[in-house]
Amino acid sequence: MSLSTSASLPPLLISPRQLAAKLNSKQSLCILDATWFLNMPNAPVRNAYKEYLKGPRIPGALFWDVDAVSTKGDSVMNLPHMMPSGSLFAQAAAAKGISRDTHVVVYDSHGIFSAPRTAFTFSAFGHKAISVLDGGLPAWMAAGEAVDSASLETEPSLSRGTYPEPSLESGRVRSFQEMLHNTTLGSSAQIVLDARPKERFDGKIPEPRPNMASGHIPHALSMPFMSVLDKHEVNGQSFTTMKPQHELWKVVSRILGEEGMEKLRHDGSAQGSVGVTFSCGSGMTACILWLALQQLGINGAIYDESWSGWGRRAANGEAPVESTQS
């Protein structure tokens, strides 16, 4: 049976045990290390690709470069890891031997941090068989699963796949113009959830990126990405996993309240319309919220440029901003 058949689709969030079972199956499978690091001034620089080559890795894993598979240049204000074009995405997927029916499993070395961004990218381009490894590489190792610790000079080469150029699904990625219009719609506006830390949302601490206003998009609500994750420490290594479904309901209900929850249920579901938009600093951790609400059956969109775009526009007087000082 083809993986394009909904009944056979794998879960969006997959456990180490589930992935280990699939490694020995004959199913078309591609595992991608989608680790990405936010390198800050005055801190050691980490290179995700070099760490992938050094190992350890999940056996057979390839590397997905989030920044390389992205749109660049003046058309996107030179912002980082913006959604790629359909042609660039198709080229990158084909280079990994991925076809439309391949089950793609993405993970990162944080636990859950950057992998959801790559999963969202695949999903937004209509790739149905996509999963995020819950807890990433650390959870895989903590579960006692085998790893490949051999140091590599380059990523393994493999036969190129065939991936037809896709189009973004309607409503999955929001533009600045759409977000600006949404601020004028009052009670009929779509809910916007901001994944940045609460202090940045409130404008109480400066943004880590230069030339940006502090605060948040008018009428947005704060849902820090760590609020939907659980922290673990195993063998001296810290990592995160997604909270269980009942805990996610508590988090979302506490932030939205009864009226907001009713609006969310009314406006969208994982099988239907898009009911909420997620934003963050640069479109990375917003995808953690997307993954979390997918566990509740709520489908969401990403404001791709996020605060990197809005905050810069606001600093230039081109966009409104709210903060606790507003």
From TrEMBL:
Gene Ontology CC annotations of this record: mitochondrion
Pfam families in UniProt: Rhodanese
Keyword field: Repeat, Transferase
Gene3D superfamilies: Rhodanese-like domain
CDD domains: TST_Repeat_1, TST_Repeat_2
Keyword Repeat (UniProt): yes
SMART domains to which the protein is assigned, alphabetical: RHOD
Keyword Repeat attached: yes
PROSITE patterns found in the cross-reference section: RHODANESE_3 (PS50206)
SUPFAM superfamilies with a match to the protein in the record: Rhodanese/Cell cycle control phosphatase (SSF52821)
Location of the Rhodanese domain: 43-149, 186-319
GO molecular function terms listed in the Swiss-Prot or TrEMBL record: thiosulfate-cyanide sulfurtransferase activity
Protein name (Swiss-Prot/TrEMBL): Rhodanese domain-containing protein
Organism of this sequence: Malassezia globosa (strain ATCC MYA-4612 / CBS 7966)
